[in-house]
Amino acid sequence: MDMRADQQYNPYRNFSREQWAKLRDDTPMTLEAGEIAALRSMYDRLDLREVEEIYLPLSRLLSIYVTATQRLYYAQRKFLGIEDRKMPYIIGVAGSVAVGKSTTARVLQALLARWSPRPKVDLVTTDGFLYPNAVLERDGIMQKKGFPESYDLPTLLQFLSDIKAGRNAVRAPVYSHLTYDVVPNKWVEVDQPDILIVEGVNVLQTGRLPRDGKAVPVVSDFFDFSVYIDADEPVLRDWYVRRFLALRDTAFHDPRSYFNRYALLSDEEATATALAIWERTNLANLEDNILPTRPRATLILKKGADHVVENVALRRL
Ligand SMILES: Nc1ncnc2c1ncn2[C@@H]1O[C@H](COP(=O)(O)OP(=O)(O)O)[C@@H](O)[C@H]1O
Ligand SMILES: CC(C)(COP(=O)(O)O)[C@@H](O)C(=O)NCCC(=O)O
Q1: Whether residue 152 has its Cβ less than 6 Å from ligand 2
Q2: Radius of gyration over alpha carbons of the chain, in Å?
Q3: Side-chain-side CA neighbours of residue 116 (13 Å)
Q4: Mind listing the pLDDT tens digit for each residue in 289-310?
Q5: Cα→Cα distances 47→51, 154, 210, 261, Å
Q6: Which mutation among 97, 101, 102 tests ligand 1's pocket best, with the greatest number of atoms within 8 A of CB?
Q7: Which residues are CB-contacts of 239 (< 8 A; sequence separation ≥ 6)?
């Protein structure tokens, strides 16, 4: 069949920032300027306007999706004639290192938690499921931190399965950016949330499919909705380097910082170090393992060089 390019099915509807902003409709603003500033990560841009024009329409969309999913869930229970507990709604937040995933995840958590009636909204980051540095060093993959092989995927899948099964007090390990390692004997407890946000570079990855036909779950099997935060590579590299320079002047001065040895580097030296880490680890990971997952997201938020979202793409149902 002759399929002309303009006839090809596009799984996404695309919106300019202005078109998307109108979809806020009458969703009320529930955050104050001070609260927004507290949600922002270093070198991210998040202000009242960004929340109003990008995140309130998304909050409205999510409230519609959550309600519809709950209805479907209850309908299935009715069909099966079973009594079951509530099913947590799980949202994945994916994208490159330094794109601002943590800020987006925190602002979503804050907005969704203020819906009425107030849902319990928890947030976990997948860095807690990285193997400890001792294991990465033993396996010679310390420079592949963030790559699929650096994560304890079975433990992450078990965690998500426990949450979906409605277990209480499910524990997730915790990562420290300061020590650059998983924190021994420390966990966050996730206790039957209505909504769970799972943020990390790897959340839309599928892994290799087995030939024996056995079902192998992937992280996104547990997601009801996913957001991919996107920006062009030169922009990401610039943000990564700027953040590295800012951390050099702040966090790296802490003697416990893994990067303490970089605290006294000149601007030129620090820039060269950041660029080397970017190229060797984060860019390679972006190209090989993160960008290929973008077409799986429910929603893509594309940021411009000034950190603000310029375009939005929503997957058709
Ligand atoms: N070496 C570091 N020391 C302290 N904080 C860091 C360091 N590297 C990253 N961070 C912080 O960790 C968080 C997660 O960063 P990252 O994984 O790059 O994701 P994103 O920028 O998409 O949120 C950010 O808030 C960032 O500012
Ligand atoms: C810890 C990370 C892999 C991010 O993990 P995530 O929370 O996305 O699972 C990343 O922040 C990181 O440290 N990358 C390694 C290279 C670097 O130091 O930038």
Answers
A1: no
A2: 20
A3: 4
A4: 999 999 999 999 999 999 999 9
A5: 6, 38, 45, 34
A6: 102
A7: 43, 98, 99, 100, 231, 307
For residue 129, the ligand 2 atom closest to its alpha carbon is 9
Sign of CA dihedral 303, 306, 307, 312: negative
| 134-176 residue pLDDT tens | 999 999 999 999 999 999 999 999 999 999 999 999 999 999 9
What is the CATH architecture assignment of 10-315? 3-Layer(aba) Sandwich (3.40)
C-alpha 63 to ligand 2 mean position (Å): 30
Domain ranges of the chain: 10-315
**Half-sphere exposure (Cβ direction) of 206: Cα atoms closer than 13 Å:** 11
Return the ligand 1 atom nearest residue 252 CA.
3
Tell me which residue has its CA closest to atom 15 in ligand 2: 145
**What letter does residue 151 receive in the DSSP assignment?**
B
Write phi, then psi, for 39 (nearest 5 degrees): -85, -15
Total-model pTM: 0.95
Q: Which of 181, 145, 153 is nearest to 285 (CA)?
A: 145
Binding residue positions: 95-102
Question: Which ligand 1 atom minimizes the distance to the CA of 146?
Answer: 17
Residues forming the annotated binding site for ATP?
Answer: 95-102
Task: Identify which ligand lies nearest to the alpha carbon of 100.
Answer: 1
List, chain by chain if needed, residues with CB within 6 Å of any ligand 1 atom.
41-42, 95, 97-102, 177-178, 243, 247, 251, 259
Between 41 and 209, residue with greater pLDDT: 41
Nearest protein Cα to ligand 1, atom 9: 177
